[in-house]
Amino acid sequence: QVQVVESGGGLVQAGGSLTLSCTASGLNFGDYVMAWFRQASGKEREVVSSIARSDGKYYAEFVEGRFTISRHNAKNTVYLEMNSLKPEDTAIYYCAAGGQWSFRPESYDYWGQGTQVTVSS
Question: Which of 13, 60, 69, 75 could form a disulfide with 49 if both were Cys (CB 3.0 to 4.6 A apart)?
């Protein structure tokens, strides 16, 4: 049984930093593209960042230069380091695993339950 679990969300002031972690079990972690998505209240789910099996990275324009994605395959873990946070970053952040390079939620096979990130002004 595949299980994906996020952690690290919380409340932070604008301009602050937060690091999310995601650990996946029940799969060959190194074989999967990993991605972070977020969904704000009343909005569609959108990709934040993704990381390839080869360590290639993608960042959405709205986080470029502020967030850093990384993976530690030996720990079956992907991270999202978030800096210079803005109130508009407030959302539930989801970790996902998929078999191909994609920025679409429907392309991902396994999802975590989400972790809330709230940025105060």
Answer: 69
The DSSP symbol for 8 reads -
Three-state secondary structure call for residue 88: helix
Angle subtended at Cα 78 by Cα 75 and Cα 84, rounded to the nearest 5 degrees: 135
Q: What angle do CA 16, 80, 47 make, to 5 degrees?
A: 105
- Strands (E) located in 52-109: 57-59, 67-72, 77-82, 91-98
Give me the pLDDT at residue 29, please. 96
Instruction: List, for residues 2-54, the tens digit of each pLDDT value.
Output: 999 999 999 999 999 999 999 999 999 999 999 999 999 999 999 999 999 99
Give the model's pLDDT for residue 109: 97
Contacts of 88 (CB under 8 A, 6+ apart): 40, 62, 119
Tokens 């096979």 belong to 109
